[in-house]
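Hi support team,

I submitted a single chain yesterday and got back a structure, but I'm not sure I'm reading the C-alpha cell output correctly. Could someone confirm the output below corresponds to the sequence I sent? I've pasted both exactly as they appear in my results page.

Thanks,
R.
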Amino acid sequence: MANTPHLVVFSGSGISAESGIKTFRASDGLWENHPVEDVATPSAWRRDPERVLDFYNLRREQVRKAKPNAAHKALAGLEKNGFKVSIITQNIDDLHERAGSHHVLHLHGEILKARSSVDVRMQYRLPKGGIEMGDFCDKGSQLRPDVVWFGESVPLFPDACDIVAEADFLLVVGTSLAVMPAASLLRHVDDDTPCAVVDPNADELSPAGVLAINTTAGEGVSALANQWKKQGNLLLP
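Hi R., thanks for writing in. Yes, this is the structure output for that exact sequence:
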C-alpha cells in the first residue's frame, strides 16, 4: 500500500480467553484459588519460590496446549495483507506470534521465557519443560519466570507509549483497562486518532470518545479486519 495504515492493537486477557486461557479477573480465573500475593509478587517469590515456580509451570503447559483463535488470526491476516500492525499485549502467552503476527510487545513479560533473578537482561527461552529449583542463570542465580509481578515496574511501558503515539487507529481488545500503568496507554494516542474497544462489556469500559463494539474478540476483530481489508484503510463506516 502506498500509505500503509498503522493499526496499533492493545490486547488483554479477554482475547486469550477464547483460546481457553482463563482470564485474571474471572470468578474461576487465572490464579485458580491462589491469592495474587501467593504467586505473583516479589514477596511471594522470596517467601516460597518453589510454589511460584510450580504455579507458572502449570500455566506454561496450558499456554502450550492453547491455540490462536479467530481474533489472533484476523490481526495476523491484516499484517499479511499489507497493513502495518503493532500489537501491545498484557498477555504473557505467545498466541499472537503463533497466529503469525511479527510485531508484538509483551508489556508483562513472556511465560515461555525464564530470566535471571539478579539480571533482568539475562533471558532464556523455554521451548519445553518448566523452571525448577536449582535451575541457574549464567551468574549462578535461580531462574524465575520472565513475567512482571504485581509491585514490579513495567520496563517496556515507555516503548508501548511511543508505539501508541504512532497509531492511525488504536484497537483495544479484551482488556478491562484496569491494570496500571497499561490502562493509561490511551492517554498517549493523538487526539484525532480513532479508537475502538472490542469487548462484550465495551459500553462500560470505553472512555469518552472511544467507539464501543459490544461483542467477543473473535467476532469483533474478524469483522473489522474483513472490512479494513476490503477498504484498504482503517476507516469505520
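A quick pointer for reading it: Confidence is low (pLDDT under 50) at residues 26-30. Let us know if anything else looks off.

Best,
Support desk
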